[in-house]
Amino acid sequence: MMVSVERLEEYSCDLPQEPQGQPLQVGIIGWLTQGSVEFQDVVLVYRPGLPNALDRVTFCVQPGEKLGIVGRTGSGKSSLFMVLFRLLEPTAGRVLLDGVDTSQLELAELRSQLAVIPQEPFLFSGTVRENLDPQGLHEDRALWQALDQCHLNEVIISVGGLDGELGERGRNLSLGQRQLLCLARALLTDAKILCIDEATASVDQKTDQLLQQTICKRFANKTVLTIAHRLNTILNSDRVLVLQAGRVVELDSPSILRNRPHSLFQQLLQSNQQSSQPPPAGR
């Protein structure tokens, strides 16, 4: 019994609380109307003694721009999103959304303005409705419209409609269907900025195409930041940000980078293409 109490205290009492930032000021209510993103000399250190996960990262994304983010494992790709959502606070530098320093915003307000499609689709035990619209903000018609746009109508009907139970982590849906449901949830937020964290890394080619088509059509006027595992998914981006050891080493259009001699993006693209080729048939 005492061991259980000690464990409960360890996990519930000693965890550091997230800094909340400041309540919205009158001058910045309704602040995110365009969708620009700017990192200014951002440094992130996970703990003392480790190399910088982000090392003076500076770049700007214009409203409505589609930015691909690439780099080898450990280059800092996911760290960018951790800082953007303030899951981790930067050691130095700042992030601006439409010119507003995100550290000055309450966490709930900041995160409510960002949509994300994670690498591992996040679903919980409950109904389709609860997973799509946790706060109950939308009418059934809007929910079905979002599902239709993500090619999920028939699937959701088969599990009992909006009130059908999904089970833990959406276990009665395939991985691709879970990812599409996360996309439908993102559509409903009407956020100005969509963050995609290698969302197609584990899905089949057909689901990958459905995701790309829906994102291209429904987020045409939104800012989209995409961490790419399959580099072909970001070849139509406006620009590509290439990270290495936490630093920005290249930032330009995909066509320029892939044709630039000795560019890191060109090397990553060649490596990606080689790894996706099927092995030679045995004799």
UniProtKB/TrEMBL annotation:
Glycoprotein listed as a keyword:
no
Q: Which UniProt keywords apply?
A: ATP-binding, Membrane, Nucleotide-binding, Transmembrane, Transmembrane helix, Transport
One of this protein's Pfam families, by short name? ABC_tran
Is the keyword Phosphoprotein assigned to this protein?
A: no
- Annotated membrane topology: Multi-pass membrane protein
Q: Which domain of life is it from?
A: Eukaryota
* A molecular function GO annotation: ATP hydrolysis activity
Q: What is the name attached to this protein's record?
A: ABC transporter domain-containing protein
Q: What organism does the UniProt record list as the source? A: Nannospalax galili
